[in-house]
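Target protein
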Amino acid sequence: MSDSPSVKRTIVKETVDSRFLPEGSRSLRIFLPPGYNEVLSYPVVYCQDGEDFFNFGRIATQANALIAEGELEPLIIVGVDVDKKVRTAEYAPDGDRHERYVRFFAEELVPAIEQLYPVRREPEHILLAGDSLGGTVSLLIALQYPDKFGGVLSLSGAFYPSALAVLSSSDADLTGLRMYMTVGLQETEFETDKGMFDFVELNRRARKLLEIKGVKPVYIEREGTHIWGYWQKDVPDALRSFFPV
């Protein structure tokens, strides 16, 4: 895949009000595909760490090129910004803002986007994407609302013991869930704000739990570390796997 400089990206900013979040609102950035037409309908990707996904993951640039080259179904991408100071509190299942963030996401953010843009509402056309703890919260949202979200892209998911416990105990029907998981083989001793973890082992354990529950994830281990330079390379294949032409 090569970038297509002749096709300009369209990115707009939005703000969603919230009764769940203490701040009362959350900023978003929205990628609209080439040839965007309000009378059509589009699959939608919701990205945790929205600013990072757009700036470091280059998801809008890469999707724009793939769509222009006929390799990806036209789609809308919603980047959900996060204050890094409260990121763990929102994304980790034992965080003190987690429950409120999950409810904001499913009960306020998604309905707002569905009112503003012609996005499809069937689970198979909705993808949650996240890196590290963003991958974790994406899966946890899908667990809590299995009838709403049908796909999860996890880039080196931070599946700490608390998250694995939630996954293990969940009685949600996950047989229809599609997962794309990747982790770098050099992520065996990664220092986080919750301590040192072997992300390879954590992702292997998450994969096994998912398989027990009937999920058949696309699972990739390759040389790499816990950085966007590694994850960025997975974005095109991941998008194509969920939304092929």
